[in-house]
Amino acid sequence: MSVHKHVFLTLLFSLFLPMSLAGHAQSLTRQSLDGAWQFRQVVSDSDTKSPAPSVEWMPAKVPGDVHLDLIANKRIPDPFYRDNESKIQWIEKAAWEYRRNIDVTTATLKHQHLELVFKGLDAASKVYLNGEEIAAPANMFREWRLDVTGKLKSGSNELRVFFPSPIKAAEEVAAKDPWRVRTHTDAKVYVRKAAYEYGWDWGPRFVTSGIWQPVSLEMWDDARIENLFVEQKDISSTVAHLDVQTEVVASKPGLATLSLSYGLKDAEQKTEQKVMLSAGLNRLSLPVNIDKPALWYPSGYGEQPLYSFHAKVSLDGQVVDTADTKAGLRSIVLHRDLDKWGRSFEFVVNGIPVFAKGADVIPFDSFPNRVTTADYRHILQAAKDTNMNMVRHWGGGYYESDEFYSICDELGLMVWQDLMFGNDWQPGTYDFKQNIQQEVEYQMRRLRNHPSIVLWAGNNETELAKEWNGRGNLPADVHEHIWQDYLTEFSGVLAVTAARVDPQTPYWPSSPSADYEDLSDSFQSGDNHDWSVWHGRVDFADYEKHHWRFVSEYGFQSFPEMKTIESFTTPEDRTSIFTPVMLAHQKNGSGNSLIQEYMRRYYGDPKDFASFLYSSQVLQAEAVKTGAESFRRERPRTMGSLFWQLNDCWPVASWSSIDSEGRWKALQYYARRFYAPVLVSPHVEDGSVAVYVVSDHVQAEQAELSLQVMKFDGSIVKQKNLSVQVKPLSSEVVMKIPLSELLDAGTDPADVVVVARLHQGRKVISSNLLYLTPTKKIVLPKVPIDATLAKAATGFDVTLKSAALARSVYLSFGEQDATYSDNYVDLLPGEPVTIHVTSEASLAALQAGMQVRSLADAFSPTTKGKE
């Protein structure tokens, strides 16, 4: 054999050898760049002057943001206290930069690939390495992976990130769009950033910048895993057909081994295969079948098992990278079938049509990096504990952390996930469309394995925004132009991305939307935001006139409790809800006036500031209760009730059911009752009391219904009992009695209450009160409430008892914090209610601070019927 032929055969054979034979394969390693950085204000002639311009470098923390770093360095006051928010507006008009050094060894430089990975930069920025600009990101919702191979040197390397004023940066981009002025598009939306920072009607008004997600230096040679996706092709209780997709980025062609282990707890299975990698991105697929899978169910319908999946890529026996994920196996379908009312809108999970019960979620803090695991768990556990099975993650904030969705997975809380487009009209430029496509692809790939996510919704109220800000009067050609841009983005670019990246999860173009179907009085479709109550100033009963297919927003405001108010006010701020500081913590323009208007309509004027805070919470709870019960009674025509909103991001008067300090308002306690799995709901209609029984259970069951007409002193005017078969997944009128039969001649409807209770044996599974007269015309008895506090095995028990009806009885302990098994309870005469209390305070301290308040206590004595 000639020398030339031998060389040729050697080269040919080498093409089919594993790439690692050229040298020992190395595992991917990451060097965290989180922690201590430095930052400073960049001062130039064009910068808006700040109260104390800073040119020196100060300590900073990454992940974080400018405001948190300024607070830590004592350069600005607490933005949440009093009216300090107004004193920090200069920050968003200034430019800022961050820096740190990266120490690099000679060994590090030998790697084939060196990449700086920014998980999130907020938002317009420029990244410099050793004085060279290497990127100009302008989207806080994307990961930025920057190749710095050949740009790093041995020893110290300076990494700087410059943030221009976000206001100015957005204006510069917007100025390049010739359609911007004609379409009335706000400049702020041209840079992808959380909308709520620009001011919302529940949040503070300041815009921040910073490195808000982790940063690392990744070093790798032959290959790395880009993504691991468990696509659920077909799921049933018999078998789960999965396609486990591993995306591998390789330096060059070669043979590798892809291994996969998967299972539930200790029942692990393994599979592997040899794969020929090409240079660049490789999409590798392993089919997996699981017999008799343990299915993931929403809360209230079953368990939430999570299967673990572990993938690894090996070259020549050396593991070069691994990836882990979890997945709950479930089928999810959004049914949109024609029926006698129009087109349905219902989530069907594992074949079960689920009535969605829950609330909308906003950012957990105005500063995302202050949110802790305990914060997430406290709010989301509260949702589960009050019988919710869904939260809608609102589209004006930011895509939440993996931890948020993992907790939802664990708790069985379905997530309606808006994409981050909130209310404002969006630009239609080609660059913008490319940017949002990459953003949504990144976020969907990051989150798509979470079983809790059951819907991707394109935006919040952007579809409605085509008529806002004067756009309804635009010339026909301009209006057509913006509508085509909208369709291209939300039913084109993003819809196609969702279908390609996460085909197992439904996509919906907007909330609210009817998916562009023509609606009439006789045809209903899609989801709805019902703001007739509150913004429309109508009575609570107006909810009962609406027959939406799915209600994804409705609500009513209230104030937080006194202890939360005290955290941001001084005594002079607490003389009225209209003091400057109280108004500064009310971002809905007419919010305080609206609460007062509804208060006077239903209850009258509370006797003092503390009474107004308390009464506002009862008012809110009664408003939302009216809507929630009405929507549940409409099942299956209506299949979802998500009230606005579950949580808060700062201390404020708002629609939340849990305030910014994590304290439950009256609404959260009410929600446990009106979202009970089996609900008894008496309702006046057609001159009769119709008693509905609503069930979310999948099996029929027997119960006993007791209906009493009771005077406020406890005497019974009338009583009816009925054995009821509670039908599964249904709403049914089980008893209907004319009012004339319930009320004896001469009985004043203002003197009685209808008490409906559903029993199973001695257990009351649902109870409800129905008043036959508007609350303002009822003279509630003002009677002392006996409260007995005793030490329990864990915590304390408080037993409340009243000789006459006491409405919305609120238990508190002054300065002592506590959690309650229940609160804002209705006391029926002679029927004690025991509330379990957990607190770090002593029995003596709790006893000293214990306060009990009822609705009758909040108002000065009035005359029945007084207007």
From TrEMBL:
UniProt xrefs under InterPro entries: Beta-gal/glucu_dom_sf, Beta-mannosidase-like_N2, Beta-mannosidase_GH2, Beta-mannosidase_Ig, Galactose-bd-like_sf, GH, Glyco_hydro_2_cat, Ig-like_fold
Signal peptide range: 1-25
Pathway(s) it belongs to: Glycan metabolism; N-glycan degradation
Name of this protein: Beta-mannosidase
Gene Ontology cellular component list: extracellular region; lysosome
Description of how the protein assembles with itself and partners: Monomer. Homodimer.
Catalytic activity: Hydrolysis of terminal, non-reducing beta-D-mannose residues in beta-D-mannosides
Domain called Mannosidase Ig/CBM-like: residue spans: 688-776
Assigned protein family: Belongs to the glycosyl hydrolase 2 family. Beta-mannosidase B subfamily.
Ranges of residues in domain Glycoside hydrolase family 2 catalytic: 348-466
GO terms classed as biological process: carbohydrate metabolic process; glycoprotein catabolic process
Biological role stated in the UniProt entry: Exoglycosidase that cleaves the single beta-linked mannose residue from the non-reducing end of all N-linked glycoprotein oligosaccharides.
GO molecular function term, any single one: beta-mannosidase activity
Residue ranges annotated for the Beta-mannosidase-like galactose-binding domain, each copy included: 37-213
EC number in record: 3.2.1.25
Pfam family, one: Mannosidase_ig
Coiled-coil residue spans: none
Keywords from the UniProt entry: Disulfide bond, Glycoprotein, Glycosidase, Hydrolase, Lysosome, Secreted, Signal
Domain Glycoside hydrolase family 2 immunoglobulin-like beta-sandwich as annotated: residue spans: 223-330
Main location: other
Domain of life: Bacteria
Lineage: Bacteria, Pseudomonadati, Acidobacteriota, Terriglobia, Terriglobales
SUPFAM superfamilies, per database record: (Trans)glycosidases, beta-Galactosidase/glucuronidase domain, Galactose-binding domain-like
Compartments where located: Lysosome; Secreted
Beta-mannosidase Ig-fold domain span: 780-857
